[in-house]
Design a protein that fits this description.
The chain is an all-alpha fold. The protein folds into three domains: 40 residues; 46 residues; 38 residues. 86% of the residues lie in helices and 0% in strands.
């Protein structure tokens, strides 16, 4: 109900008075609405809160994924350095094994001689056991 009072000269005094009353009424109405708005306590908007919560959750998940990737890269780096250390240790063990194989290659003839001697010692052992058993039987039979 906005009535303009710009050309007051065309209105009569009664009309001017009504125009002032309406203007004053509008002013009072605006003042009441202003006071009502200023005294009102606003609650958070649920739709906005949900949108912000979704964005916050998305951001949190992205940060979590970023942290997980950092841990994965750190773990991969540690594994790679451990593999390098193990490679060095295995190279040292390989050198020692090659040295041992060279030593065993030289003593291979000695090993064959020991194996032949062990074979001969078996015959001597079993022969000695048989002779001992025969002697014990003879002693038991004739002396016992």
């Amino acid at each position: 109900m906005n009535i303009s009072c710009f050309h007051i000269t065309h209105f009569e005094s009664y009309d001017v008075h009504i125009c002032h009353v309406i203007f004053r009424y509008q002013k009072e109405e605006e003042e009441r609405e202003r006071e009502l708005l200023m005294s009102r306590v606003f609650a958070p908007n649920e739709d906005t809160a949900i949108t912000i919560d979704a964005a916050l959750q998305h951001n949190t998940r992205l940060q979590s994924a970023n942290h997980g990737m950092d841990e994965l890269l750190h773990s991969g780096s540690n594994i790679l350095s451990n593999l390098r250390d193990q490679r060095g240790a295995l190279k040292g063990a390989q050198r020692k094994m090659l040295d041992l194989m060279t030593t065993l290659g030289l003593s291979n003839t000695v090993m064959r001689l020991i194996d032949r001697r062990t074979h001969q010692d078996k015959f001597i052992l079993f022969g000695g056991m048989l002779v001992t058993c025969i002697v014990m039987f003879i002693v038991w039979k004739y002396l016992g």
